[in-house]
Amino acid sequence: MLARIAQELFWLGRDLARAEHTARMLDGVFHADVAGAPGEQDIALSWAELLAIIGEKAPGPTAAAGDTGEFEALTAESVARRPLGRAVVASLLTLDTDSQASIVSCVARARERGHGLRDVISTEMWEALNTFHLGLAGRDLSAALVSGPYSVYQDVKEQCALFWGLVARTMLRDEGHSFLEAGGRIEAADMVLRMLRVAVPPAPHRSGNEGEALALLHAVGGFQSYRRAVRAAPTVGPVARFLLYDGAYPGSVASSVEALHAALSNADALPRSSPPVLRLGRLIADLELQRRAPDAAAGFDETLERVQVDLELIDSDIEERYFAMAAAAAVHL
Amino acid sequence: MAETTHAGLLDAYQVPAGCRDELIDESGEPRAHAGPLIATLERLGPEALAAAGRRRDRNFMQQGITVEVAGTDGERRDRPFPLDLVPRVLPAEEWTTIKRGLAQRIRALNAFVDDVYHAHEIVRAGVVPWSLIVSRGSFARPVHGVRPPGGVYCHVSGCDLVRDGDGRWRVLEDNVRTPSGISYVLENRVAMTRLMPELFAGHRVRPVDHYPGLLLDALRAVAPAVDAHPTVVVWTPGPANSAYFEHAFIARQMGVELVEARDLVVREAVCYMRTTAGLERVHSIYRRLDDDYIDPLEFRPDSLLGVPGLVRAYRAGTVAIANAIGTGVADDKAVYHYVPEMIRFYLSEEPILDNVPTYLLEDDATRKHVLARIDELVVKPTSESGGKGVFIGPHATAAECAAQARMVTAEPERWIAQELVHLSTVPTETADGGLAARHVDLRPFAVFGDEIRIVPGGLTRVALREGSMVVNSSQGGGSKDTWVLDDGGAVDLAPGTLPAQRPPPRLPDVRYGGWQGQGQQQQQQGAFGAGEISQREISAKNR
Amino acid sequence: MNLAIRYLTQYRYDADVVDNLNALRVKPAANGRQRCDEFNVRLDPEVRLHRHADYFGTEVVEFEVSRPHDHLTIDVRARVVTQDGPSPPAAPWSALREPAYREAGGEFLLQTDAADQVALHELLEATGAGATPLDTLLLVTELIPDRFEYRPGATYVDSTVTHLLELGAGVCQDFVHLGLSLLRRHGIAARYVSGYLYAAAADGRQESIEVDTHAWLEALLPALDGGEPVWVGADPTNRGLTGDAHVKIGHGRHYPDVPPIKGVYRGMASSEHDARVTMTQLTGADPGAIART
Question: Of A58, B111, C178, C230, which is most buried with the most CB atoms under 10 A?
Fold first, then answer.
């Protein structure tokens, strides 16, 4: 398929996954904000950290380098001027149309890409994206954040779920499907990894306090799954390992990486000689090895870092192998 | 029709003086072919019509079937595409005439394009002056002497037809560059079957949904004969284009790639597209942008929307481009004047469809005559489309008439004048669910691959403001679903019984009627970002 | 004259570029006044050449370098034999109104420049005084260098006549565009000519001289006996009609129809270029000279 289209699908997947994970994290932090006193917990997941997790993420490829700088400047400015409380961060990451990382921006970009992809995606998918965008744009989000943020994030989660459901039900399982899936998965893995790296303190500082890690689970929507899958109390260590390694939980990094591998293997005409596919295979094996290691807690931080570096390399492998044609054409003088 | 309760629906129905209404006769009764339709509308009543209108607007917004309209504050907004819920109904025998007339006209236009870029026979015969041809901005010198596969140039055409007060169909203008609107024809039909299924009862309406298949067949038929399965693409200027929706629609319906210039590259005079698996050969391009933007090496050097070297590939015959480069010379408004003569010259036939009486203004006597009557005439710029710059004498003030007269005097070659056509009317919904007479035109769509095929009906555009004759969607026009009735006996002639033609016979397919499409002519406009191509034009400047 | 021409153009890019497509209009034309005996183009990087004649009859040499490269050299060599044209006809103004003349003039009667009529008014008056179209042609070639300074670098490749009028200075291309604008307004068909001009060394020795590509114009003058009108070359940069030192490449309505080199490339690189034309008068055996009268 056209390299440009594949790239747009890939980033459509990323934008939506980012919107969904941002909503989940905001929801989780709101929850923690109400439920307990942040700062006294082991888990560092409150408003400032949230900004660090999402703020350092660069936007997609068509939002060129200049835009990244703009966003960083905006964030830095906000940080300098105002205390990083709920009001500032929640609105910056939810409804600020000037911020590339806000949910409304992600959804607007996804809808824009969807508009350009209308001959590739199913009509239902396009209509879901369009309705999603129009719904957010037509709603008084500031008021909703004050009166009931839960409903806002619930709506975002549902719309994302609707979209992916329609992908599963209505989109032709062709190469385009694979790139869309790949985009969603790599973004999901990346978001969870970032959250773990920011929120989980280095091992020596962890306590065994139950309940502290609940915010993490809420922030990815994995509380119920954890309870059913893991016997241990939801303390930091087991929760973090669950989110990184547990292949049975679809939101874990391991699951996302597996799905990414499967998607690219489908899309690639020659997967056996494809750098991103090969690198993903090695990463999967490595994660499995780590999971089985006798002392899984030791070296957890290093593992997080290594996986994230790997994901970055895989991202550039994907860019090079599938989208380089589109990139070469996008050169400006 | 019997004295069924008209329930007030048509009581206040007024047809403007001098115009013909297509569904209602002079005595205020429905015409025979529209009987069941009008009866159903009356039975449903205004409330049902208004409710269906609200459903329509909601659905179109949701589906993104919108047009950009400037509000009173000047800001442009997306509005649901204004589909009027009362269809226009054409009896079968009327359609047969239109279809044959269009096929004839398109064959002549196609022959003219070929002649202009090769033998110049019509010039040597003294029918069309060479000076007129070379003065057209659309005369494409880079393709002089290039003959595309099959000698087909006008693969897709959408001529605008109007119906005068005397009931005669006339061609108002020809569109053989990149006519748009077919997507609305198909979408209108789908929407009507969902919104107002009751209306279809009592009529056998011919389908239109085979258009994408016809177009794909045509594009494959003209592809260079190399591979068993030629690769066809639709080329769009990009999402910023006002007709982008249609480009995506057509690509999707045909199941082919929708490409932009940056997806295409020419290497060694062969055109390829950039895919995730490398370069893939392209054989046939349905392009939806004007010649000027096709290839910066041959046309406008400042255009970065184009594909450098594409004309080279076209010249080498390795890629088909539809419509062919240079067809604009045939739908120029000054050339339009000569189309009836072209039909006689190339086909040795009498035109089935008339032109609207048109005056070229370079001749002193004609110009004087026109300027004296400018308040009765329509004056159009020769090189514009989409209704831009059109002057309508009867609607103009004295000062506007004087200003137009000055412009004509200063540059007579840039203008033509036409008699005002009293466009026919069709009942059209009003805000409260009632019916009022509104002016319409018709753009049927024809596809020319190995033969000319026309989908039944076409795009009916309707001026939604009372008394207005401007139907362009960019200027407040709407559209109607257009029904060609399958009336049993009154069907087309079998091919063998058609009048003799000059070879090669290119006849409308009998099973398929005409094509309809609508929408404004595509313009290249809007801000496309700086493109990817570094441009240099030398340097080796003459000193 | 028997001339050897070498036209060498070199580009350097500050990074690799790809898909470098070019069209050259550099080959001396063959017509009643000149003959091209030898013509070849060498490229570095080496790629295949494609040739065709364009709408105006100019031979176009096209090529593309698609693989990455950081330089491009175009080395054109030609040998040509030229001679002076016959003396031009001085038919009366009335002959311009003949339909046959208008038809022969075709697109070369149409303005290609949107210069303001008012700004041209005085120049039109001054040049309109000619007793015949030929006189006016000569007046145009005199008036332009009188009124405008020849100043290399004053204008750009896409400068308009308006630009020249405002600036009061330009190069041969601008002079020709102004000349075309004036002649066409007088009803005389006129076309842009691209070519090479041999300017002999002062001492008359035969040597290689460095020149540039040059531009002049041709006007369509009606024949005296009512026969076919003829194209007469005139050089508004060098005051007067053209002679055997003018080597024509081709003609068009205006410069964009006959640019010597036109190209595009992809890449994130800017380019520098250097172009030089060397012309050498050859003597001795003049085996293939056009029969001289």
Answer: C178
